[in-house]
Amino acid sequence: MLPPLFNIATAAHLAGTIVLALFFILLARHDRRPYLREWTFAWIVQVAALFLLLVGRRPTTWALWSGPYLVSTALHGLFLCSAAHRYARGVGFSRRFTLILLPIAILSLAAGWVFDEWGPLQAATAVLLATTHLVAAWLLWPFREKTAMGMRLVTNLLLILGLRHALHGVLFASPLSGAGDWRDYEAVLPFTTLLLQMLLALGMVLAAMEAGQRQLEESNNMLEEAKRRLKMLADTDPMTGCFNRRVFRDLVDEVRADPQQRGGTILVLDMDGLKALNDSQGHSAGDQAIRRTADAIRLHTREGDLVLRWGGDEFVVILPGVPKDEGLRRAEGISMAIVDIGLGASVGLCDYGPARDIVLALRDADRQMYDVKAARKAQAAAAT
Fold it and tell me: What is the pTM of this model?
């Protein structure tokens, strides 16, 4: 017979586990993650196991309660394994793993006669718990992080409990299990188990919070990426892939907000002969010419330059930090690149900076482009 302290310790263990089960029930109601639900089931079936242990140790009820006690204890460990498997791989155990319960269920029918003494029954339950705890620790071990205390606490406690149950399985099965010193230690086992399981439950809560924080960060990153893509779509011309006028408005705000802005040069390009091309070869040929012109312009700009499709066959190129004389050379290079692909464009340019607002510079460049186009038309008419 165990000393009365064992019943007191088991009752305290039962009371503590009831608190854990109630806490996890409330947590699982507000957090629908499946592994949290399985952790909750693990504490619930342990409540059942401890209750059966407390009320079923009388010789008259031993055969009736020992089987359900064994099954409840095994379920506690299996739910811990299933939760670990779901946390690690995103899915719980498949249905074939329920066959694990079949030999336990068969054994439970005869547990009262097979384990006619306290020691062998506790040895069997200790082996079951050792196996399931060590398997759960092995499944979760790769998810330990230096900055995340919860999962490290869970894996450490599962490992400690697994090794402890393995040791107890050996001791319960040994002839020394009836010694007086072992009996005294066995009487306080529920106290130490409760302490370790309270730490395990704390680790579970921290691990769930850390996992939720990671999911929130991933969701925020996905949201930021979606916002970036939407902004890119809103700022990009679908035909050419160039920026549109929205980007110019943002640039105007930046330039006007910073009085120390270095300034730069604006080029305005308008394609020559696009209407004739549309009339003779169709709008698909005209669209292709617009795309080829945009590609030629982009190939002759540098990182930090902005190429905008201003509308129709008109483009605007903004060269930040480029003075007007260098802007003239850049405009000639772009014009030659457009000529090389068999097309043409009239170009106007103007510099902007503290002395000239960027919007006024755009108007001057646009006016210059129209002057160039008018001069070309006049020259072509005179030649004809």
Answer: 0.63
